[in-house]
Automatic annotation (TrEMBL), chain A:
It holds the Pfam family BPD_transp_1. The chain crosses the membrane at residues 12-32, 61-87, 99-121, 127-148, 177-198, 231-252. SUPFAM superfamilies: MetI-like (SSF161098). GO terms for biological process: transmembrane transport. InterPro entries: Bact_Polyamine_Transport (IPR051789), MetI-like (IPR000515), MetI-like_sf (IPR035906). This is Spermidine/putrescine ABC transporter permease. It is found in: Cell membrane.
UniProtKB/TrEMBL annotation, chain B:
Residues 1-24 form the signal peptide. SUPFAM superfamilies: Periplasmic binding protein-like II. CDD domains: PBP2_PotD_PotF_like (cd13590). This is Spermidine/putrescine ABC transporter substrate-binding protein. It comes from the Bacteria. GO terms for biological process: polyamine transport. The keyword Lyase does not apply. Pfam families: SBP_bac_8 (PF13416). Keywords: Periplasm, Signal, Transport. One of its GO terms (molecular function) is polyamine binding. Its main location: periplasm. It comes from Paenibacillus selenitireducens. Gene3D superfamilies: Periplasmic binding protein-like II.
TrEMBL record, chain C:
The lineage of its organism: Bacteria, Bacillati, Bacillota, Bacilli, Bacillales. This is ABC transporter permease. Belongs to the binding-protein-dependent transport system permease family. CysTW subfamily. Pfam families: BPD_transp_1 (PF00528). It is found in: Cell membrane. It is a multi-pass membrane protein. GO terms for cellular component: plasma membrane. It comes from Paenibacillus selenitireducens. PANTHER family: INNER MEMBRANE ABC TRANSPORTER PERMEASE PROTEIN YDCU-RELATED (PTHR42929:SF1), INNER MEMBRANE ABC TRANSPORTER PERMEASE PROTEIN YDCU-RELATED-RELATED (PTHR42929). Keywords: Cell membrane, Membrane, Transmembrane, Transmembrane helix, Transport.
Amino acid sequence: MKQKTNPLLSIHSYIVIAFIYLPVLMILIFSFNTSRISSKWEGFTFKWYGSLFSNRYVMDALMNSLTIAITSTIIATVLGTIAAIALRNALKKSKTVLGMLYLPIVVPDIIMGLSLLLLFSQFHFPLGKWTIIIAHVTFSISYVYVIVASRISGMGKQLEEAAQDLGASPWQTFRHITLPAIWPGVLAGAIMAFTLSIDDFMISFFVSGPNSTTLPIYIYGLVKRGISPEINALCTIMIFVSVGLILLAQWLQNKGNRGKKASTLPF
Amino acid sequence: MKKMKWFASTMLASSMIIGLMATAGCSPKKDTLNLYSWADNFDEQVIKDFEKQFDVNINYDVFANNEDLLAKLKAGGSNYDVIQPSDYMVATMIKQDLLEPLNKENIPNWSNISDRFKNQPYDPDNKYSVVYTTGVTGIAYNKKYVKGDINSWADLWKPEYKDKVLLLDDAREVIGMSLKKNGFSNSTTNEDEIKKAVDDIKQLLPSVLAFDTDNIKQKMIAEEGYIGTVWSGDAAYIAAQNPDVAYVVPKEGGTIWSDNYAIPKGTKHKELAEKFINYMLDPQVSAKNYESIGYSDPNDKAKEFHSQEYLANTMINLSDDEIARTEWLMDVGKTLQVYDRYWTEIKSGRE
Amino acid sequence: MRKSKWLVSPVVLWLSIFLILPMAIVVVISFLQRDEFGNLIYQFTLDNYARFFDSLYMGVYWDTLVLSISTTVLCLLISYPLAYYIANAGATRQKIWLLLITVPFWINFLIRTYAWVLLLRSQGVVNSVLMNIGIIDEPLKMLYTKGAVLLGMVYTFIPFMVLPIYVALEQMDKKLLEAASDLGATRWNAFRLITLPQTKSGIMTGSVLVFVSTAGMYVVTDILGGAKSAMLSNIIQTQFLGARDWPFGSALSVIFAITSLVMIFLFNMALRSRHERAKEGRA
């Protein structure tokens, strides 16, 4: 059933991966640089990895970023997926709702951030992690929606109709037929939401309050004095931990699944 | 389906763990001072000492430039007790009624500040602000590539520096520099003068390697650029990393700037904020703080506690003569729109 | 299944509060005036919209469109084969590839962009390598050029293109391809007639995301372009910050958002009509 892969295609893919990881390699190398300013190589050291963990500002910012990214990803993925499913059957999709769903993608970040801040301060909503989470959910919903919706648009209804004919409840149909079929889209949407959240500066900056500085906000602030190699060290660790966790999860799952049919789900 | 459950539960569990870790660090009941400033703007130990001595917590949050700070305060995102705007921003914030007047009785150490930096035009009676650090915009150049005497803004226009000139990425700084070169005030509202200055900048454009405020240091250190408009404090930093770099305040004069302490309207800890400002102005604390961050210390009484090395640095401690040649950037009111449109012309290469 | 429509209400509620309401404030501001300190004056005016039709700002908008379109096309050319490769890999490898592509984008954006500076500057890594192998004698000027900006944009938005196209490709019925090749279709014809039409929704989604995000990106032009060009996003940014002209900034944003939405709907309509026709043809 599998096509033979064109060797040119593999070569292309490896070149793109190399392109994507080229800057990462630089970050890795310069995390071992003795000099505090990251533009000149002056010698090898591990000291930044040590001082990183005793820097309470960086650690706080990292924790805030992770909390916000994970929470907002979960909420946005659920809401965005629900929207995509709900709008699937509306033959004439409401232009208003669609426009609403595309709006966060086309509105410049600074406008999103400032206007949300105006809203929150109008209603005396205390600024902090929750306001950042709300903001991130608001723009992430759209990204999740467009990806899941494009998956759904290419999907037939036969299986679901068959399931319902055989007496499955709507929930059972959803859980056993629809969800597995759109799952790759849901996951791709979640990955996108997480990526956007953990890397957002502009919107977070405006809706943040005391004690909710995220990593991007902290790093932007550092630029004036020069970004220290501690941040390079942190990025390096983040990459290794992420890749490590992915491989670990994969390995655990393969162990549990041994003997079963290979799955086509991305996780 | 199992995989989905597995995925969902992992996400949930990890978010809960992180949530717990994030809240675990908070110790309740203590008074909290919300400090909003540039990143790494204070010596960490000095902040810890203050927390210990007064039994309070300091929340140190950061912004990246004055305009971000203003937009945020204006939209109602205050909740901060001490902020650190620059000079012209202090003036703007006073006009927009965003600052709380200071109670000088709570800041007796204010008298330690050098007279050179008291009662400046952006806040004539220091009713709202106390200076934190100051600097001047001048020319930094690399002696390896730039031969001969550099003493005028016009030197930037020399053809041999084509593609090697660095300028600050700021409309008022760049146009102000060209205004100074032409002998005008850096805050003029005369549109003919501005036009003349802008025409000069357009002549300079082919020589410009990049506009950059934050990373101009790296570009000078790595010798990407040979000559450029640089703040004195940054110049000290550059020279420490690359001894070939020299600094001059041009004969036409330059722009002087300062960062200041101020207290935004709506603070809930005004007295604590004043206590903090006063503490930072203590001579010994001051010396410790500025030695560590490497900025200029406006505190006269702190001189005796500073190291010889610090005092000998002419880029940190500018001479009276150099300071006398400088001018503060003033709010230009409606003319700002003129500056902004010209700036867009300069950047986009269109008219 | 009609009843499932009410499911959309939580999302509509959420977006109404946290998106439509704040946007309404922005639209209102775009019709207001401001005093010399940047404070809003509550008097109606159309000036902020009229100002856009200055050749300067129209020109900037044009530059922005050109950059966005070039980025989208390049991203598509790079990402489609990659997504195709991933979608045809084994299940385990699919997952690993997808994440390998996204993980670098979890680390900070500024840090990634500065890493490109280290690579591209005149005494940077790329120039040193090229000079050491003897391909060039003089360092090439790569940084602070339009090319560097384009490279930075393409780099940043590759995942935005790969993810939706992958999702579409993964879903494709591969039996169709087998049938086509059984019937003697060449690979290229099979791709053109079967794969491409079936992944159109993915291509469209990816293109919309890349196109709009490029137009909204300002840091790449500043860092890799040496801040020597002005994009619409840079100007909007300046209006809210340095220039303290919220009404004009709001007006520019409204113009930008509306023109983008119109483009998206035109895309979608073109896509849908093709799609529907194809379906009818099959039936």
